Amino acid sequence: MTQPREIGPQPAAGAEIGSLIGGAFGLVFLIINSSSFSTLGRILVLVTGIAAFAVIVFLAIRRLGSKRRAQVSPAGSAESAPRRAVPFGRSYWIIVAVEALALFGGSRLLSGLGHPELGVAWVAFVVGTHFYALGHVFKLNRFHILATVVTLCGIAGFIAFFASIPAFIPIFSGIFSGFVLLAFGLWALVAVDGR
User: Fold this and answer.
1) What are the angstrom distances between the C-alpha of 43 and each of 48, 50, 69?
2) Left, alpha or beta for 47 (phi > 0: left; psi -120 to 50: alpha)?
3) How many CA atoms lie within 13 A of 76 on its CB side?
4) Separation of CA 131 from chain center
5) pLDDT at residue number 135
């Protein structure tokens, strides 16, 4: 008689795709917002970001491959364990659509008011707050942490503007947000209790 295999805590359904999406956006934040850095500073930011994203890609591909292999028994029949559905359903797409409208509308408004430099702070704020809704939809408490940190990065950009240090807006709202998204992309691929 075979003993049932003990399965430890698993990442959330769709963690691989979610990590790739979050990591890609994190890398975009770094590429766009490091353009005013010195050559050495930009190289350090980009090399670190690219390395983090490469690890995300490696882990996501490896985990997806493991899942595919686990779904098929050695005899070629499907395993008896139920498949986990990827949670990118209607609610997800509604949240993404509202986010896109807020990003576009807010950025246009800020540019129209003569403050295009606040665009990155607005983007970080909207991206951060949308993770609150995603955390609710996916039932992932860690998204609330991500939401809080990235939203605070956006707010820090607005504070930098009002404190008359606009050069720090891309650092607080762009670079910090980029690294936070990359870090959470890595974290999502690590199985933890309570998710």
Assistant:
1) 8, 10, 38
2) alpha
3) 0
4) 9
5) 87
Mean pLDDT by 10 residues, the chain (195 residues): 51 76 95 95 97 95 83 55 61 93 96 96 96 87 92 98 96 97 91 48
Residue 10 near residue 140, CB atoms below 8 Å = no
Whole-Å CA distances, 185 to 15, 22, 71, 143, 161: 8, 6, 24, 11, 29
The pTM assigned to this predicted structure is: 0.82
| 141/143 Cα distance (integer angstroms) | 5
Structure tokens given for 152: 């605070």
Determine the pLDDT at residue 4.
Answer: 47
Q: For the residues of the chain, what is the DSSP string, one character each?
A: -PPPPP----PPTTHHHHHHHHHHHHHHHHHHHTTTS-HHHHHHHHHHHHHHHHHHHHHHHHHHHHHHHHHB-TTSSBPSSPPPPP--SHHHHHHHHHHHHHHHHHHHHHHHTT-GGGHHHHHHHHHHHHHHHHHHHHT-HHHHHHHHHHHHHHHHHHHHHHTT-GGGHIIIIIIHHHHHHHHHHHHHTS--TT-
